[in-house]
Write a structure and sequence with these properties.
Yope Regulator, Chain: A, six-stranded antiparallel sheet, 6 strands
Length: 112
């Protein structure tokens, strides 16, 4: 039997458009959120990061939402194509929906 998801992840899933289509998978100490076989979000340390690409990245950057980063063995930081979700998106499904849809679209564009 799979371990239950933590309360933050459960809350994020409740806010997602069509949550029944979202598959959470534990990975790298966090949770990846998948739709149609592609990962569009990462939950790490109770923060939600959404997939970005050349089309939607500017919206995240204009809102001062940083990318998810990690340090390589040599100590150099690496930024991933996932940016922090804005706090106001966590208010209701209708405030999360445009951000989530943007990330889902970015992940599907990458899949093509």
């Amino acid at each position: 039997m799979a371990r239950p998801l933590d309360p933050f992840t459960e809350h994020v899933l409740e806010l997602m458009p069509a949550p029944e289509e979202i598959i959470p998978k534990r990975m790298f100490g966090g949770v990846g959120l998948f739709k149609e076989g592609t990962m569009f979000a990462i939950i790490s340390d109770e923060k939600l990061y959404l997939k970005t690409d050349d089309i939607n990245r500017a919206e995240f950057e204009s809102n001062s939402l940083p990318p998810l980063t990690f340090q390589k063995k040599d100590g150099k930081p690496v930024a991933l194509s996932y940016h922090l979700c804005p706090e106001e998106a966590f208010q209701r499904e209708d405030t999360m929906s445009p951000w989530a849809k943007s990330a889902i679209d970015a992940s599907l564009r990458r899949k093509k």
